[in-house]
TrEMBL record:
Stretch forming the signal peptide: none
Top-rank taxon: Bacteria
Protein task: May play a role in DNA repair. It seems to be involved in an RecBC-independent recombinational process of DNA repair. It may act with RecF and RecO.
Organism: Sinomicrobium oceani
Keyword GTP-binding: no
Cited InterPro entries: DNA_Rcmb_RecR (IPR000093), Rcmb_RecR (IPR023627), Rcmb_RecR_Znf (IPR015967), TOPRIM_dom (IPR006171), TOPRIM_RecR (IPR034137)
Protein name: Recombination protein RecR
Residue ranges covered by zinc fingers (C4-type): 58-73
Gene Ontology terms describing biological process: DNA recombination; DNA repair
Keyword flag Zinc-finger: yes
Domain Toprim stretches: 81-176
Protein backbone atom coordinates (compact mmCIF):
# COMPACT_ATOMS: atom_id res chain seq x y z
CA UNK A 1 0.00 0.00 0.00
CA UNK A 2 1.49 3.33 -1.14
CA UNK A 3 0.80 6.31 1.11
CA UNK A 4 1.06 9.99 0.22
CA UNK A 5 1.60 10.78 3.88
CA UNK A 6 3.91 9.28 6.52
CA UNK A 7 1.46 10.38 9.23
CA UNK A 8 -1.32 8.45 7.54
CA UNK A 9 0.94 5.44 7.00
CA UNK A 10 1.93 5.34 10.70
CA UNK A 11 -1.67 5.59 11.89
CA UNK A 12 -2.75 2.79 9.53
CA UNK A 13 0.16 0.60 10.61
CA UNK A 14 -0.74 0.98 14.32
CA UNK A 15 -4.44 0.44 13.70
CA UNK A 16 -3.75 -2.71 11.68
CA UNK A 17 -1.99 -4.25 14.71
CA UNK A 18 -5.45 -4.85 16.19
CA UNK A 19 -6.89 -8.36 15.78
CA UNK A 20 -9.13 -8.77 12.76
CA UNK A 21 -8.11 -5.40 11.31
CA UNK A 22 -6.33 -5.66 7.97
CA UNK A 23 -4.59 -2.78 6.20
CA UNK A 24 -7.70 -1.84 4.19
CA UNK A 25 -9.98 -1.73 7.22
CA UNK A 26 -7.32 0.20 9.13
CA UNK A 27 -7.20 2.79 6.35
CA UNK A 28 -11.01 3.08 6.35
CA UNK A 29 -11.06 3.62 10.14
CA UNK A 30 -8.26 6.16 10.07
CA UNK A 31 -9.94 8.15 7.27
CA UNK A 32 -13.18 8.00 9.26
CA UNK A 33 -11.42 9.46 12.31
CA UNK A 34 -9.98 12.23 10.13
CA UNK A 35 -13.46 13.20 8.96
CA UNK A 36 -14.80 13.33 12.54
CA UNK A 37 -14.41 16.44 14.72
CA UNK A 38 -10.97 16.29 16.36
CA UNK A 39 -12.56 16.09 19.86
CA UNK A 40 -13.97 12.70 18.92
CA UNK A 41 -10.49 11.29 18.23
CA UNK A 42 -9.15 12.95 21.38
CA UNK A 43 -11.84 11.28 23.48
CA UNK A 44 -10.87 7.92 21.99
CA UNK A 45 -7.17 8.48 22.67
CA UNK A 46 -7.93 9.65 26.22
CA UNK A 47 -10.20 6.66 26.95
CA UNK A 48 -7.47 4.25 25.80
CA UNK A 49 -4.86 6.19 27.77
CA UNK A 50 -6.89 5.98 31.00
CA UNK A 51 -7.70 2.33 30.40
CA UNK A 52 -4.02 1.49 29.95
CA UNK A 53 -2.81 3.50 32.94
CA UNK A 54 -5.62 3.13 35.46
CA UNK A 55 -6.94 -0.38 34.88
CA UNK A 56 -7.04 -2.56 38.00
CA UNK A 57 -7.56 -6.24 38.52
CA UNK A 58 -9.70 -7.38 41.45
CA UNK A 59 -7.44 -8.73 44.19
CA UNK A 60 -9.81 -11.62 44.82
CA UNK A 61 -11.01 -12.80 41.38
CA UNK A 62 -8.60 -10.96 38.99
CA UNK A 63 -11.44 -9.54 36.94
CA UNK A 64 -10.93 -6.10 35.38
CA UNK A 65 -12.25 -3.59 37.89
CA UNK A 66 -12.08 0.11 38.76
CA UNK A 67 -11.72 -0.76 42.42
CA UNK A 68 -9.39 -3.03 44.37
CA UNK A 69 -12.23 -5.44 45.04
CA UNK A 70 -14.68 -5.77 42.14
CA UNK A 71 -18.42 -5.19 42.56
CA UNK A 72 -19.18 -8.90 42.38
CA UNK A 73 -16.64 -9.88 45.06
CA UNK A 74 -17.71 -6.94 47.24
CA UNK A 75 -21.43 -7.79 47.07
CA UNK A 76 -22.87 -9.32 50.27
CA UNK A 77 -25.54 -11.01 48.12
CA UNK A 78 -23.05 -13.33 46.44
CA UNK A 79 -22.25 -16.83 47.72
CA UNK A 80 -18.48 -16.84 48.22
CA UNK A 81 -18.36 -20.61 48.71
CA UNK A 82 -19.08 -21.04 44.97
CA UNK A 83 -16.26 -20.19 42.57
CA UNK A 84 -16.70 -20.29 38.80
CA UNK A 85 -13.43 -20.58 36.87
CA UNK A 86 -13.39 -18.62 33.60
CA UNK A 87 -10.84 -17.48 31.05
CA UNK A 88 -11.50 -13.74 30.94
CA UNK A 89 -13.93 -10.89 31.57
CA UNK A 90 -16.03 -11.77 28.52
CA UNK A 91 -17.03 -15.03 30.19
CA UNK A 92 -17.92 -13.19 33.42
CA UNK A 93 -20.11 -10.81 31.40
CA UNK A 94 -21.78 -13.67 29.53
CA UNK A 95 -22.58 -15.58 32.74
CA UNK A 96 -23.72 -12.43 34.56
CA UNK A 97 -26.13 -11.76 31.68
CA UNK A 98 -27.92 -15.02 32.43
CA UNK A 99 -28.79 -13.85 36.01
CA UNK A 100 -28.62 -17.52 37.00
CA UNK A 101 -25.41 -17.49 39.01
CA UNK A 102 -24.95 -16.04 42.48
CA UNK A 103 -21.43 -17.21 43.30
CA UNK A 104 -18.07 -15.58 42.67
CA UNK A 105 -15.64 -15.96 39.77
CA UNK A 106 -11.98 -16.69 39.34
CA UNK A 107 -10.52 -15.19 36.16
CA UNK A 108 -7.50 -17.16 34.91
CA UNK A 109 -6.45 -14.66 32.26
CA UNK A 110 -6.08 -17.33 29.57
CA UNK A 111 -5.76 -21.08 29.08
CA UNK A 112 -2.79 -23.41 29.31
CA UNK A 113 -1.38 -23.54 25.80
CA UNK A 114 2.17 -24.90 25.45
CA UNK A 115 2.24 -24.02 21.74
CA UNK A 116 1.70 -20.35 22.60
CA UNK A 117 4.14 -20.54 25.49
CA UNK A 118 1.40 -20.24 28.12
CA UNK A 119 2.02 -22.46 31.13
CA UNK A 120 0.23 -22.70 34.50
CA UNK A 121 2.58 -20.10 35.99
CA UNK A 122 1.48 -17.51 33.41
CA UNK A 123 -2.12 -17.76 34.62
CA UNK A 124 -3.94 -16.91 37.87
CA UNK A 125 -3.98 -20.51 39.06
CA UNK A 126 -1.97 -20.44 42.30
CA UNK A 127 -4.37 -17.92 43.89
CA UNK A 128 -7.27 -20.26 43.09
CA UNK A 129 -5.49 -23.17 44.76
CA UNK A 130 -4.81 -20.92 47.78
CA UNK A 131 -8.52 -20.12 48.03
CA UNK A 132 -9.39 -23.82 48.01
CA UNK A 133 -6.65 -24.59 50.56
CA UNK A 134 -8.06 -21.90 52.85
CA UNK A 135 -11.22 -24.03 53.05
CA UNK A 136 -13.72 -21.32 52.17
CA UNK A 137 -14.72 -22.84 48.84
CA UNK A 138 -17.48 -25.45 48.71
CA UNK A 139 -17.58 -25.95 44.96
CA UNK A 140 -15.36 -25.03 42.00
CA UNK A 141 -17.25 -24.78 38.71
CA UNK A 142 -15.23 -25.08 35.50
CA UNK A 143 -16.61 -22.87 32.75
CA UNK A 144 -13.77 -22.71 30.22
CA UNK A 145 -14.55 -23.20 26.55
CA UNK A 146 -14.43 -26.87 25.59
CA UNK A 147 -11.33 -26.66 23.42
CA UNK A 148 -8.24 -28.78 23.93
CA UNK A 149 -6.61 -25.91 25.85
CA UNK A 150 -9.73 -25.47 27.99
CA UNK A 151 -9.83 -29.19 28.82
CA UNK A 152 -6.10 -29.25 29.62
CA UNK A 153 -6.50 -26.27 31.94
CA UNK A 154 -9.54 -27.76 33.70
CA UNK A 155 -7.74 -31.05 34.26
CA UNK A 156 -4.58 -29.37 35.53
CA UNK A 157 -6.56 -27.35 38.10
CA UNK A 158 -8.72 -30.34 39.01
CA UNK A 159 -5.59 -32.38 39.82
CA UNK A 160 -4.27 -29.56 42.02
CA UNK A 161 -7.44 -29.03 44.05
CA UNK A 162 -8.85 -32.58 44.24
CA UNK A 163 -6.73 -33.48 47.33
CA UNK A 164 -8.50 -30.77 49.32
CA UNK A 165 -11.89 -32.44 49.07
CA UNK A 166 -13.65 -29.58 47.30
CA UNK A 167 -16.60 -30.39 45.02
CA UNK A 168 -15.84 -29.81 41.33
CA UNK A 169 -18.33 -29.43 38.52
CA UNK A 170 -18.40 -28.37 34.90
CA UNK A 171 -21.13 -26.47 33.11
CA UNK A 172 -23.35 -28.79 31.08
CA UNK A 173 -23.06 -27.66 27.49
CA UNK A 174 -25.82 -27.24 25.02
CA UNK A 175 -23.08 -25.77 22.90
CA UNK A 176 -20.89 -27.57 20.40
CA UNK A 177 -17.29 -28.39 21.29
CA UNK A 178 -14.99 -25.50 20.49
CA UNK A 179 -17.71 -22.86 20.80
CA UNK A 180 -16.58 -19.96 22.89
CA UNK A 181 -18.57 -19.26 26.03
CA UNK A 182 -19.29 -15.64 25.15
CA UNK A 183 -21.20 -16.67 22.04
CA UNK A 184 -23.58 -19.03 23.79
CA UNK A 185 -27.08 -17.59 24.08
CA UNK A 186 -28.19 -16.54 27.55
CA UNK A 187 -30.86 -19.18 28.03
CA UNK A 188 -28.57 -22.05 27.02
CA UNK A 189 -25.73 -20.74 29.15
CA UNK A 190 -28.04 -20.07 32.11
CA UNK A 191 -29.38 -23.62 31.92
CA UNK A 192 -25.92 -25.12 31.60
CA UNK A 193 -24.87 -23.42 34.85
CA UNK A 194 -27.97 -24.58 36.73
CA UNK A 195 -27.61 -28.14 35.39
CA UNK A 196 -23.89 -28.43 35.87
CA UNK A 197 -22.45 -31.92 36.22
CA UNK A 198 -19.73 -33.32 38.50
CA UNK A 199 -16.37 -32.75 36.84
CA UNK A 200 -15.43 -36.45 37.12
CA UNK A 201 -18.39 -37.33 34.84
CA UNK A 202 -17.06 -35.05 32.10
CA UNK A 203 -13.83 -37.06 32.00
CA UNK A 204 -15.61 -40.28 30.98
CA UNK A 205 -16.99 -38.87 27.72
ZN1 LIG B 1 -13.59 -9.77 42.12
Amino acid sequence: MEFSSKLLENAVREMSQLPGIGKRTALRLVLHLLRQPSEQTERLVLALHHLRNDVKYCRNCHNISDTELCEICASPKRDESLVCVVEDIRDVMAIENTSQYQGLYHVLGGKISPLDGVGPNNLNISTLIDKVKAGKVREVIFALSSTMEGDTTNFYIYKQIAPYGVATSTIARGIAVGDELEYADEITLGRSILHRIPFENSLKG
